[in-house]
Design a protein that fits this description.
The protein is mainly alpha-helical. The chain has a domain at 13-68. The protein has helices spanning 17-32, 42-62, 72-86; strands at 11-12, 70-71.
Length: 93
């Protein structure tokens, strides 16, 4: 799984279009093996990103849960704490 792709469902505030587009881009980069496609592959690459972003929007809009939404700020703080514990010598700027 690509580490740059983060869960987007059941958060308050909900995932933005930019976050969904970024996740789609990371997914296409991962499965294609290209960070930046060649001119010959650019159209197919862009179409794949758009298709996956649309599918992700549909999925996020149709999923249901009984649990309350997670707070983005709290979840980000927990992730930073886990990272600091896992990599104690790494400094953040």
């Amino acid at each position: 799984m690509c580490r740059s792709i983060k869960p987007l469902f059941n958060f308050e505030p909900p995932a933005t279009d930019d976050e969904i587009q970024a996740a789609a881009l990371q997914f296409v980069r991962k499965i294609s093996g290209f960070a930046n496609p060649s001119k010959a592959n650019e159209a197919a690459f862009s179409q794949a990103v758009d298709t996956i972003a649309t599918a992700a929007h549909t999925l996020l809009n149709e999923l249901a849960t009984q649990t309350p939404p997670k707070n983005r700020a709290k979840e980000a703080a927990k992730a930073r704490a886990r990272s600091a514990e896992r990599f104690p010598n790494r400094t953040r700027e």
